[in-house]
Protein: Nadph-dependent fmn reductase
Organism: Lucifera butyrica
Amino acid sequence: MKVVAFNGSPRANGNTAQSIQLVLAELKKEGIETELIQLGGRKVFGCLACGKCWENKDNRCARQDDEMNTFIRKMQEADGIIIGSPTYFSNVSTEVKALIDRCGFVSKANGGEMLRGKVGAAVVSVRRAGSNFVYSAINFFFGVAEMVIPGSSYWNMTLALEPGDVQKDEEGIQTFQTLGKNMAKLLKQTRA
Ligand SMILES: Cc1cc2nc3c(=O)[nH]c(=O)nc-3n(C[C@H](O)[C@H](O)[C@H](O)COP(=O)(O)O)c2cc1C
């Protein structure tokens, strides 16, 4: 059983990454394999709306000038997917939006089988406001992809500004640890 996580912040060890690690630690305790992919700051482009994925039906994006197909393959192969994003102007980071649009469209173009039934969890960091929108944007993607979503004791977010501030956010830490436990439980119930 494997979970792939994407850090959508360009800060490789910022609050989003550290929050994801809290979730991954709980998954590892339950014997679940994990992989963290640094997405933020990578060269990824938006969807071209060329429609070629609907013609080719090969589970891949026709756009070949970035690493998106590697990320799509990682999602296809995983049982669970974590998408972490900082809050940028009340929204997901640009890289996370590109991942959602292109992976989501490729999945739909191929009948939806690529993501259906996988377990998905959002991880959000925010200084002050806008995290609910980011949480929603990621969960809208999981929902329309027919994935299943574990809950936690609070919405999956940390109030943090400078890298590492998450470690001072006791409730945030608790929320991510509970999310990890619940995600592991759901994975075992649905993917074993
Ligand atoms: C371009 C940009 C836009 C941001 N927009 C918001 C915002 O809308 N609301 C907010 O509370 N924090 C905002 N922040 C702060 C980040 O969400 C916050 O510092 C977060 O912890 C960063 O996560 P990271 O350490 O993983 O990069 C913004 C930061 C940047 C760089």
